Amino acid sequence: MDADVRVSNLCFAVGTVSQVQEQQPVAYKKMELQKTSDILDERLLLCAYEKVQAEKLVVESDDVAQGLVKLISEHRVTELVMGAVADKHYTKKMKALRSKKAQAVQQRADPLCKIWYICKGTLVYRRKASP
C-alpha cells in the first residue's frame, strides 16, 4: 500500500487497486483489496492502542495523491499524518519531501489541513494550515 492516513476519527488508505487491467482476473483485484484491508486492520489496532477512535475506509483510485486530496476535501480533514518517502529511501539528514505522492498532496490538499510527513517514526516535514 502506498499511503496510509490517521486522523482523529478516520483511518483510510488509498491505493492503486483500480489500475488492475480489466482482462486480469477478478481474483487478483480481490487479493489486492484483501491486502489493503489487512494493512488497515493493523492501523486500526494502532489507533485503538493510542485510544484514537477510528474506522476503515478503502477507496480505489488510479492516482494515490489525487485520492488523498479528494478524501481530505470530502471528509474535511484538518490534520493528516502520511509517509514522506519509502522507508528504503529515508536518511536522517532528510529535510524535504522526496516522494512524488507526498509532494502532490502537499501542493494540492486543502490549505486548512495540517500535514505531518513521517518516515520510520521520524517527522521529516510539516505543513501548517493556512487560512
Describe the structure.
This protein is α/β, with parallel strands linked by helices and 131 residues long. The protein is 34% helix and 25% strand. The protein has helices at 26-49, 64-74, 100-108; strands spanning 3-7, 10-15, 56-60, 79-83, 114-119, 122-127. α2 packs parallel to α3 (100-108).
Described by strand count, sense and barrel closure, the largest sheet is:
3 strands, mixed
Class by alpha and beta content = alpha/beta
Shape category:
globular
Low-pLDDT stretches: 1-10, 13-18
Order of helices and strands: EEHEHEHEE
Strand order of the largest sheet: 1-2-3
Please tally the β strands and state the result.
Answer: 6
Work out the radius of gyration.
15 Å
Q: Give the distance, in angstroms, between the N- and C-terminal Cα atoms.
A: 32 Å
List the total number of helices. Answer: 3
The share of residues in extended strands comes to: 25-35%
Question: What percent of residues adopt helix (DSSP H or I)?
Answer: 25-40%
Return the average pLDDT rounded to an integer.
76
Distinctive features:
single chain; 131 residues; alpha/beta; 3-stranded mixed β-sheet; 3 helices; 6 strands; disordered N terminus
Secondary structure layout:
Blueprint: E1 3-7, E2 10-15, H1 26-49, E3 56-60, H2 64-74, E4 79-83, H3 100-108, E5 114-119, E6 122-127
Parallel strand pairs: 2-3, 4-5
Antiparallel strand pairs: 1-2, 5-6
Helix pairs in contact: 2-3
In short:
The protein has a three-stranded mixed beta sheet, with helices on both faces. Helices cover 34% and strands 25% of the residues.
